[in-house]
């Protein structure tokens, strides 16, 4: 049943979700570049925030989906959950990389340095490394059943580690007095309504993008399974 | 319960007997740890930096690096000659296998630390004796956390083609909290602060130990499945 759906999805033209995402993304771009006023202190570079925060949110959301899918996989042992975990981890790593790229671009003119070992930056970097390792593990395991089980264990362990990493790097640096510039918390407060609205549109656009990418990636994985199955069938029947 | 304990003890005993016969694991871990310390002494100019500040970091890096070697080695031995297959065929519970391996890994690493601490003390000119017991506690908790997650990941990595490289890649990002907490606490202890000053770090390490031992117990069934 699921396989029939997926093959249809691939062959057909872009669906409603695609157009919805494209529309929201366009609205977000218009809002970011044309509508929202430039921030007084930081200038034009502040606009990168409208991409940075949604990417960060998506990365965390994607890793959370990996965690939930991994638990469900170990519980139910259905290939479906393994596909979700795998696809979500890939998307999460892409957006986590974007966070790590857009962050320094913003930090260089504002803080004067590309990188500071601030709690948030450090934990994002460690998180990125964990999920890179997760994807590498998937690439290194040959047998499909083992791969799914091992990856699920790492997916669970990795997500449980996030709060511990967060507190450790927080205390690691708080005991060392740092310049006052690093107050990423200040971004959300005292924001102009138009800025908040732009951020919300951008968040919505990126969340839709996640759903779209996830749908495509899952369909791709199912097609792969289908091809494998057909190959095996042909191999043994001939 | 008694039977369960016996199973664990049997596995630990087997590991120690193998080690007594071969002496492979301990010697390679110890030599490697000494080398790490020496390389650090060459690369960090101790006349500029105060050894109290760099020392704890170097010590823990030596422990973690040689610990990863030990973890890899301990499961490689099981893989050779189909020993793991044999272990899985015994009526022992999977979690008993995990605890057995955890305790033997912990034992080897603690033994290694007992030898590496005097080396560290001499090379860095730090007197550890006044802070001996708090230091022992901190080292034990850190090593326990490292071994708890390390044993789980090593049992998983043992079945991969590229296990030598995959274990550190999986293990090091995950043990960042333990690394930071252990180094901080060791530094504070060497600076003469009492244990009550670092209760938050202590709590963090305890949480790490408990969470990952628990996760390992819950998931080891899925890894040691043939």
Number of strands of chain A: 0
With helices defined by DSSP (H or I, 4 residues minimum), what is the helix count of chain B? 9
Helix-strand sequence of chain A = HHHHHHH
Strand content of chain A: under 5%
The multimeric state of the shown protein is heterodimer
Q: How can the largest sheet of chain B be summarized?
A: none
Given as residue ranges, the uncertain stretches of chain B (5+ residues, pLDDT < 50) are none
Tags for this model:
heterodimer; A: 238 residues; mainly alpha; 7 helices; 79% helix; globular; disordered N terminus; B: 226 residues; 9 helices
What is this entry, summarized?
With 238 residues, chain A is mainly α. In chain A, 79% of the residues lie in helices and 0% in strands.
Please describe what this structure looks like.
The complex is a heterodimer of chains A (238) and B (226). With 238 residues, chain A is an all-alpha fold. Chain A has one domain. Helix content of chain A is 79%, strand content 0%. In chain A, helix 1 packs across helix 7, helix 3 (49-76) runs antiparallel to helix 4 (79-111) and helix 5 runs antiparallel to helix 6. With 226 residues, chain B is mainly alpha-helical. In chain B, 82% of the residues lie in helices and 0% in strands. In chain B, helix 2 crosses helix 5. Chain B starts with a helix and ends with a helix. The model of chain B has no long low-confidence stretch (mean pLDDT 88). Classes of the chains: A mainly alpha (238), B mainly alpha (226). At the A-B interface, helix 5 and helix 6 of A face helix 6, helix 7, helix 8 and helix 9 of B.
């Amino acid at each position: 049943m699921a396989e029939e759906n997926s093959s249809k999805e691939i062959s057909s033209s872009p669906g409603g979700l695609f157009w919805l995402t494209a529309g929201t993304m366009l609205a977000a771009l218009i809002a970011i570049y044309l509508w929202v006023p430039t921030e007084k202190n930081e200038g034009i570079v502040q606009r990168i925030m409208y991409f940075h925060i949604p990417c960060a949110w998506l990365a965390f959301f994607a890793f959370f989906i990996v965690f939930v899918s991994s638990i469900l996989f170990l519980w139910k042992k259905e290939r479906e959950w393994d596909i979700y975990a795998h696809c979500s981890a890939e998307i999460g790593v892409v957006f986590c990389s974007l966070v790590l790229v857009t962050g320094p671009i913003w930090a260089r003119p504002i803080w004067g340095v590309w990188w500071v070992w601030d709690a948030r930056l450090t934990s994002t970097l460690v998180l990125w490394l964990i999920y890179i390792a997760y994807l590498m593990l998937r690439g290194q395991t040959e047998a499909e059943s083992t791969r799914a089980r091992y990856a699920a264990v790492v997916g669970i362990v990795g997500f449980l580690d996030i709060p511990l990493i967060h507190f450790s790097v927080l205390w690691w640096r708080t005991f060392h007095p740092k310049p006052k510039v690093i107050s990423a918390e200040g971004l959300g407060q005292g924001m102009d309504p138009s800025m908040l609205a732009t951020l919300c549109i951008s968040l919505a656009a990126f969340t839709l993008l996640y759903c779209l990418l996830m749908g495509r990636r899952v369909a791709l994985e199912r097609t792969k399974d289908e091809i494998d199955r057909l190959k095996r069938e042909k191999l043994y029947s001939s | 319960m008694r039977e369960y304990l016996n199973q664990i003890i049997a596995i630990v005993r087997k590991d120690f007997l193998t080690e007594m016969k071969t002496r492979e694991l301990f010697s390679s871990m110890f030599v490697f740890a000494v080398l790490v310390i020496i390389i650090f002494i060459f690369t960090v100019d101790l006349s500029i930096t105060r050894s109290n500040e760099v020392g704890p970091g170097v010590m823990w890096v030596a422990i973690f690096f040689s610990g990863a070697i030990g973890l890899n080695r301990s499961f490689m031995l099981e893989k050779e000659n189909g020993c793991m297959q044999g272990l899985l065929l015994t009526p022992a519970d999977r979690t008993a296998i995990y605890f057995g391996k955890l305790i033997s890994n912990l034992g080897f690493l603690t033994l290694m630390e007992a030898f590496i601490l005097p080396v560290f003390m001499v090379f860095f000119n730090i007197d550890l004796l006044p802070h001996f017991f708090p230091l022992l506690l901190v080292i034990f908790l850190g090593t326990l956390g490292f071994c708890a997650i390390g044993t789980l990941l090593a049992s998983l990595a043992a079945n991969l083609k590229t296990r030598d490289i995959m274990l550190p890649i999986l293990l090091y990002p995950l043990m960042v909290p333990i690394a930071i907490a252990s180094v901080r606490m060791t530094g504070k202890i060497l600076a003469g602060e009492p244990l009550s000053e670092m209760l938050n770090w202590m709590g963090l390490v305890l949480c790490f130990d408990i969470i990952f031992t628990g996760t390992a117990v819950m998931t080891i069934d899925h890894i040691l499945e043939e």
